[in-house]
Structure formats: C-alpha cells, structure tokens
C-alpha cells in the first residue's frame, strides 16, 4: 500500500548544513530548493541576490515548505560565505572546475558545519567564492550534457552529504 504524507514514518532530523544560493532567480527553482532543503533537514537556506521571487510561482513548487525551512535573503553571497568561513564552516562550492573533485570521493564527516554554495542558473558559482572555498565538488556525468539543473544537483549533493553524516 502506498503511504501518504500523513502515514510515512520518516525520522525528522536536522543536519549542520547551510545552503547558500548565489543569484538563483528562477521561481520554480527557488520553490524546489525549499522542498529539497526541507526533505534533507538542512539547518538554513540563504538566498543571495537582488531579485529573489518568493511569490505565487515559487509557492507552486515549494508546497508550503517555505513555512518550515529556516531561510534568509541577503544581497551579497561573497559577504555571507566570508562570514560563514570565519564562523568555522567548511565551504563547499558545487561547480565543475579544473580543480573540482567528484562528490562521491569526498568524506563529509569533518566535525564542523558545512555550507554548500550553489550558483546562478547560467553562470554558476562566482570565481571570488570558488577562491575561498575549502572544496569544489562536481557530480560525475555520464551522458552528453556536462551539467544539470541547479536543484537536481543540490538534491544529489544533499543526499550524499546527509547519507554520510547520518552514518556517524
């Protein structure tokens, strides 16, 4: 028998993970980020930029998870990430670069809170943030395309990290 939202028996848990969204501005992506962050029990979601659409188009995909996810809106992603680094967060940028490592090859049981930086739908994570990151990770791709939607990539990353952290 298929379970409903009311009959599932998942254990609620919160992980010491903050997702920082650098200029993600597509309303359905924003709504989907709320859902992913709720599903994976992240501590905080921080939207950075000047045009963060939190209206009807966003709530269509969020399914009310914006009410349960701790979130903030800030202007500068670089300022947010710099502050998190000063607060002893391990900074992980989700980006394909010349020195990025495959997500599945990293041990995330590092004993400190994690900040995952995700970038703009078209341009990715900015060079300034990549330069101060403790790690740059990518998801291995086996098809012709070299990237995937920012929310899909974030969900895969959150799955891998929370899987590792819950096995402590």
Sequence of secondary-structure elements:
EHEHEHEEEHEH
What's the shape? globular
**Major sheet, described briefly?**
7 strands, parallel
Q: Flag low-confidence runs.
A: none
Kindly report the oligomeric state of this protein. Answer: single chain
Residues in helix, % = 25-40%
pLDDT averaged over residues = 92
Please describe what this structure looks like:
- The termini are far apart.
- This protein has one domain (15-166): 3-Layer(aba) Sandwich (Alpha/beta knot), CATH 3.40.1280.
- The chain has five helices and seven strands; from the N terminus they run βαβαβαβββαβα.
- It has helices at residues 27-39, 56-62, 77-86, 127-132, 150-166, and strands at 15-22, 42-48, 71-74, 90-94, 101-102, 114-119, 135-138.
- A seven-stranded parallel beta sheet has the order 3-2-1-6-4-7-5, with helices on both faces.
Task: Give a topology summary.
Blueprint: E1 15-22, H1 27-39, E2 42-48, H2 56-62, E3 71-74, H3 77-86, E4 90-94, E5 101-102, E6 114-119, H4 127-132, E7 135-138, H5 150-166
Parallel strand pairs: 1-2, 1-6, 2-3, 4-6, 4-7, 5-7
Summarize it.
This protein has helices at residues 27-39, 56-62, 77-86, 127-132, 150-166; strands at residues 15-22, 42-48, 71-74, 90-94, 101-102, 114-119, 135-138. Helix 2 (56-62) links the parallel strand 2 (42-48) and strand 3. The protein has a 7-stranded parallel sheet, sandwiched between helices.
């Amino acid at each position: 028998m298929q379970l409903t939202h009311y009959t599932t028996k998942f254990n609620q848990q919160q992980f010491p993970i903050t997702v920082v969204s650098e200029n993600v501005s597509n309303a359905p992506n924003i709504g989907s980020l709320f859902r992913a962050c709720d599903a994976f029990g992240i501590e905080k979601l921080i939207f950075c930029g000047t045009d963060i659409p939190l209206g009807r188009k966003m709530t269509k995909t969020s399914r009310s998870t914006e009410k349960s996810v701790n979130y903030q809106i800030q202007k500068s992603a670089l300022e947010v990430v710099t502050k998190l680094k000063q607060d002893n967060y391990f900074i992980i940028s989700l980006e394909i670069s010349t020195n990025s490592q495959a997500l599945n090859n990293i041990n995330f049981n590092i004993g400190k809170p994690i900040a995952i930086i995700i970038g703009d739908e078209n341009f990715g994570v900015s060079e300034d943030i990549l330069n101060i990151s403790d790690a740059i990770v990518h998801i291995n791709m086996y098809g012709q395309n070299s990237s995937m939607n920012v929310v899909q990539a974030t969900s895969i990353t959150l799955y891998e990290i929370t899987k590792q952290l819950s096995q402590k």
